[in-house]
Amino acid sequence: MEIYLAQNAGFCFGVERALGIAHDTAKNSSIPIYTLGPLIHNPQVVEELRKEGIIPLENLDNIKEGILIIRSHGIPPSVIESAREKGLTIVDATCPFVKQAQEKAEMLRKADYQVVVLGEREHPEVEGILGFAGENAVCVNDHNNIKNFSLSNKIGVVSQTTQSVRVLSRVVSELVKNKREVRVFNTICTSTQLRQEAALKLAREVDCMIIVGGRNSANTKRLAQLVKERGIPAYHIETEKELEKGWFSDVDKVGLTGGASTPNWMIQRVIEGIRKLSETGLAYKGTDVKRLPI
After folding, report:
1. Active-site residues (predicted)?
2. Is 95 annotated as a binding residue?
3. Which residue has the higher pLDDT, 113 or 166?
């Protein structure tokens, strides 16, 4: 059995940047350090950060002093203001792509557009974007969802950074059917697009796909969803402990990718896990990790 690793897999620029900021803050500070929610959507990495003294919290109610690192997904401006009122030191680790989506939403609001945000309503990134988009902003998760809202004739559109261009295009096409003015900003990040394209390309060359990443990671879930929609057996796991021997029966080629918040060391653990399963009874041609041309 051969293992093929997608050309674009694992940490993206925004996640690496956020982790770098967090590590530097921990090294240079002697006061408590917090994040509102996990810094990134990977439980194993968040646990490592906890060991460095970076504590994720659900709210700011019981914090009296310290440093608040704004996570890579960003937070609403009202929450930032509340943190400042408490006297907390703000360290902004918001992903630049997420920051761009926030800025575009705010610009559209100030220009009197009703903002439509494509994304998952309960996702922290979307909650943050909506905070910049104004009270009359709405969130839709696909083009069929649009009919559930009463919208003005002047619409501005932004997207959660981990959405697919295909879904964004369908939403825009639906809006322009009935609205006089639709202004669109494609705020899907390039890293997301590259990972999706690489995963789909690899999926066409293998017998099954393993997608590694946090279950609370929107971009990882999207990778698994896109592969499954193409009819390829796909398994979303967080760690190598979830691998099952039965997945690899009669499989010659296994494809592997990781979400934008998946560390390389976890991807390597999964590779080793697949190798161990192979060594305990699965027929295989070789276990070298290879990269298919993208």
Report:
1. 125 (proton donor)
2. yes
3. 113
Q: What number does CATH give the domain 2-10+191-291?
A: 3.40.1010.20
CATH placement of domain 13-94:
3.40.50.11270
Catalytic residue, from 52, 58, 85, 125: name it: 125
> Which alpha helices (H) appear in 5-76, and where do they start and end?
13-27, 43-51
Question: What one-letter code names the amino acid at 195?
Answer: R
The tens digit of pLDDT for each residue in 164-206 reads 888 999 999 999 998 889 999 999 998 888 999 999 999 999 9
Q: Has 169 been labeled as part of a binding site?
A: no
**73 is an annotated ligand-binding site residue:** yes
CATH architecture of the domain 97-188 equals: 3-Layer(aba) Sandwich (3.40)
Helices and strands per DSSP (H, E), number in the chain? 9, 13
CA angle 274, 280, 286 (to 5 degrees): 55
Whether residue 274 has pLDDT greater than 60: yes
∠ Cα 137 192 228 (to 5°): 100
Q: Is the pTM of this model over 0.85?
A: no
